[in-house]
Structures are given as structure tokens and as C-alpha cells.
Amino acid sequence: MLRGAEWRGRAFTGRSVAVIAPGREAAVIVPEVVRTARAVKVFQEEPDWLLPLPLPLPRALAVPAARLNLRLRVRDPWTRRLLTPDARFNRHRPRVDGRYYACLQEPHCTLVPWPVYALVAGGIRSAEGIEHHVDCIILGTTAAHREDLFA
């Protein structure tokens, strides 16, 4: 298990990796991990708006631009829905990232739609009861502080 930034600089060649992180952190972690891992399962705790390039836009235009970016880059409606932030809770400015959506569409990368229920021997149990067996778990900074995962 790797917490916070412990994943940086590591090769995951031949390994199955789970990433548990909010959208802002997953957008940083996943593109690096997917390059070398055999398989990546992403347990995104909450999505964030992403822009493909740094655009000097006021917040009122940044979110619609990020929404358009998502629509153009993710063709599957269900995946797009999973990656759409809830306006009631998402208060961050859109993050600049041009690789995350493409990585999630790689054949060896899976966005798991269910929240993490527990860490179990050999992997993760998601809320629908499926155990996802992985070789390595990466906890984003926010997820690393969640005591309920380790209870």
C-alpha cells in the first residue's frame, strides 16, 4: 500500500494497481501508473472538472468549458456520468489535465463505479460486494486519512 506521493517514481510493470483518490488526485496519479501497470482500477471518490489546457477563463466560463471537454473526450454516456461532478458539492476551479480521460479509456484501465467498502486481504471490496484483487493499492492524500477504510 502506497500513501500520498509514495507512488511517484515507481514502476508498476506487470502489476495490477488500485487507485483510491478524489478526482483531482486521481487525474495526477492514474496517467503515471497506467503507463507501466498491467491493470489499473480507479476508485474515484468524487469527480472534478478538468480542462485540457490552461485557459485564462473566469470560473463562470471554466465549468462550461470543462463540461464540453468531458463531452468531447469521453464518448460513453455512463462513464461520462461517473466523471461529472455534482454541482452542489464541487467547488474547485477546474483542474488542467489533458491525459486522465484518455487513460480511463485504455483497455487495461477501469473506472469502478462503486465506492470502496473495505480493504481486504489481496485487495479491495467495493460497496456492491465484489472483491477486486490487486497487487498494489495507492491511496491519494485524502483517502489515506480515511480511518473507516482501515477499521
Describe this structure in words.
- Keywords: FAD, Flavoprotein, Monooxygenase, NADP, Oxidoreductase.
- This is FAD-dependent oxidoreductase.
- This protein has 151 residues and is α/β, with parallel strands linked by helices.
- It has a single domain, classed as FAD/NAD(P)-binding domain (3-Layer(bba) Sandwich).
- The chain has five helices and ten strands, in the order ββαββααβαβββββα.
- The chain has a five-stranded parallel beta sheet with strand order 1-10-2-3-6. A three-stranded antiparallel beta sheet has the order 7-8-9, with no helix packed on it. A two-stranded parallel ribbon has the order 4-5.
- A hairpin with a 2-residue loop joins strand 7 and strand 8.
- The longest helix is centred in the middle third of the chain and has 15 residues.
- The radius of gyration is 15 Å and the shape is globular.
- The mean pLDDT is 89.
Quick rundown:
The protein is of the alpha/beta class. It has a single domain (2-121, 132-149), classed as 3-Layer(bba) Sandwich (FAD/NAD(P)-binding domain), CATH 3.50.50.
List keywords for this structure.
151 residues, alpha/beta, FAD/NAD(P)-binding domain, 5-stranded parallel β-sheet, 3-stranded antiparallel β-sheet, 5 helices, 28% helix, 25% strand, NADP, FAD-dependent oxidoreductase, FAD, FAD/NAD-bd_sf, flavoprotein
